[in-house]
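Most newcomers find our protein records easier to grasp once they have seen one. Nothing more is needed to start thinking about how sequence determines fold. Here is such a record, shown just as it appears in the course material:
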Amino acid sequence: MSRTKRYEQLRDLLAERIHQGVYRCGDRLPSVRQWCQQQGVSMTTAQASFAALEAEGLIEARPRSGYFVTAPVNNTPLPQRSQPEQRPVHVSRWAQVKALVVGSSPQQIRHALANGLPDLRARTLLPLQRLLTQSQRQASLTHFAYDSLAGDAELRHQITHLMSHSGCMRHQDDVVVTTGCQEALAIALRLLTQPGDVVAVDSPAFYGAMQMLEARGLKALEIPTDAEHGISLGALELALEQWPVKAIMVTPTCNNPLGYSMDDQRKKALVELARRHDVAIIEDDVYGDLAYAAPRPRSLAAFDEDGRVLLCSSVSKTLLPGLRLGWLAPGRYRDRALHEKYVSTGSSATLAQSAVAEFMARGHYARHLTAMRRQYRLHRDQMRAWVHQYFPEGTRVSVPSGGFMLWLELPERFDSIALNQCLVEHQLGVAPGPLFSASGKYQHCLRLNFASTLDDITHAAVRTIGDCAREQLARRPESKAIRIRHDGDKSSSTSGLI
């Protein structure tokens, strides 16, 4: 038997074991030496089988560590480009969002498939925990006085260093520390709009941002968005010509929930489009530092020459959401942003700021990001493989470029809200699609979180969700598909969500 034929057999054997779950995403494979001894082949043949699998994207070589499984390959198609109602609409569905974010049980947190939690158990967070403990132990009374309104100077210095990685060069005085990214986005909206104004958004969009529009009495103008390339610039330009848009609110890098990252050319074109129509952009960059590819993608603010991009971010998705530390780089609106910060929350808590600044200054943050990017990319691939295996035929799945969110599009007769009602007895839940739309679209879509350890328990949870989805579709012939409700009645309840 030829050597070429033998290495192909070994390649196929390893590939089959990966697909069967003998070696799972993130697992370390036997070393080349171990593999050649187990199979009775030469080192050259064993190395060739590994190289073939690496070329196919099933495994990757890590310096001084060996070969690791990346993911079983599947050809699941991407979600289709969204087709929202291209007219300003009032936002609703607070009851459903409240059910998602309030009252999570420990078991539901364990799975965390529905919410936006990062991995809270990462070992690279241990230095931060020690710094937080140290800050509390060594704190003097001065640490409990009011901080600078703009936030801790050292933290703002570290933030500008982070921003420079995305091509956004700012001075620390250009940054305002906020209570999470949520407050940064809220301040930006208050700076730019009045109740009744129209805000253009990518669609689907983060439901927290949607609720900010509702709270301020704003109308959302949802723009068609593609899971690979992002918001449609052509549709956005038509909207700007047709409607009195006061601001554009987008997540162009590692988008939540679609996962795309717009390329530099499209980002530059978006900023230029806003300049021509004299509209400000609110950029949600909260997942940008979790981009899998190097170098880190550039932000919209990197292309901003006249201060019209207000960049919002935080450490809630990269570190710990309970820290409640975010920031706003408000461009030309800095003085007004400080005033809005003063009348909303005043200065921010001091101890967490100093601990995070130290964590960043010592290089722990960079090392943590490196570990999380690798982990989340592996988890993405494994979760996509599980979805391909367990969810109904016809399911489309995003391929996130960063972060830890997966967007699923099922056949149109599927009802993600009804799915959650089925999952209550299993103490599971998903983030249903209508939460990500002002008009209640995407009932046949859902979002899954893949941040935490993808162990046997999580594997079983995904399989259960897929089984429930299959059962629902089997009971719902296509001719009896339930249409999306827009009236907010009790039939749209999402009780039991986490």
